[in-house]
Amino acid sequence: MHRSWEEPADPTVDPSARAARERFDALAKPTGSLGRLEALGARLAAIAGSCPPPRPAPATVAVFAADHGVHAAGVTAWPQEITSTMVGVMASGRASVQALAAAAQAEVVVVDVGVAHRTAPVDGVLDRSIRRGTRDLSVEPAMTLAEVSRALDVGAEVADELIAGGARCLVTGEMGIGNTTPASALVAAYCGRSAAEVTGRGAGADDETLARKVGAIESGLSRHDPGDDPLVVLASLGGLEIAAMAGFVAAAASQRVPVVIDGVIADAALLAAERLLPGVRHRVVAGHRSTEPAATIALDELGLEPVLDLDMRLGEGTGAVLALPLLDAAVRALTDVATIADVMGD
After folding, report:
1. CATH no. for 15-54+331-344
2. Global pTM?
3. Nearest of 96, 109, 20, 11 to residue 59 by alpha carbon
4. What is the per-residue pLDDT across 126-178, written as a single tens digit (0 to 9) for each?
């Protein structure tokens, strides 16, 4: 992932964001009466570098799918084969993410970057597989540096392709049984938190499974010290889909195309991208707050306030895609509402 990068200004001081705030203040309405929608419009202006910003449409959700060697440590009750099964469901257009994306008028692209039990190519799925799942992070690094670099490149390439094809807003999605374990491990490592602080129940873990999950993360964290190279940390504790999402976010940020970030897995990917390219966080929108504890820890570390909080924890991009109509509304308010000067005839 080789990007020309100059750290962007914080949206609170960005000139385009300032112009958007001034425009909102000039509209025919009480000052500040659109609440957080005004901050969202200003953020989109900062991302685009223009006021008003372009409408965030058409939008595309990229669902990166991969498996995890740490599954062998008993961190989830779900069989690993579910990843491959759900990729097939997504390819048929019948997964949750497709239903919610249709409501938001967004497209969905599914990308296999490391599904373990894929037996043959699947129509409707981009085959960018790097290896058939990662190694077990609780006993050894999940990926080599070459593998994590390739995953970053795959994510960047997908973003570039979607933007070249006309997408004006991207959404992060993922699928991978057991992937809350590597995501939580990354949040712990990047934020200096303990395994117990970041670890949630994921897809319904019971007490014994939760204890194994905490233990697996503790084992992975024991290989690292604060200040370790963020790429080494990503390779050691992450997943192929997490690294691909990090590259996806960074590539879009370099082109000033907004990315709407989904739940805890995507939050971990954004943390990785931010550590690799400081300032990436200024060119994304946090779509929603996952119920996983690592999600709030990551968002607080990044200084991001999510658009939605619906007690969701499914993944796939389902929470983030629901925020898309609000992004569009923020831009339409900037472009379509009369100013006080218009109304008064000045």
Report:
1. 1.10.1610.10
2. 0.96
3. 109
4. 999 999 999 999 999 999 999 999 999 999 999 999 999 999 999 999 999 99
Catalytic residues: 316
Lookup result for tokens 């970041």:
198
Mean pLDDT of 75-103: 96
Where along the chain do the CATH 1.10.1610.10 domains lie?
15-54+331-344
Beta bridge partners of 286: 261
Give the pLDDT mean for 37-50: 98
Whether residue 96 is predicted with pLDDT greater than 90 in this model: the reply is yes
336, two tokens? 């379509």
What are the tokens at 265?
Answer: 């897995």
Concatenated DSSP letters for 241-267? HHHHHHHHHHHHHHTT--EEE-SHHHH
Fold of domain 59-325: Rossmann fold (3.40.50)
CA proximity to 256, closest of 286, 284, 287, 288: 284
- Residue 134 has phi, psi (to 5 degrees) of -85, 175
The pLDDT, as a whole number, for residue 1 is 62
Domain with CATH 3.40.50.10210 in the chain: 59-325
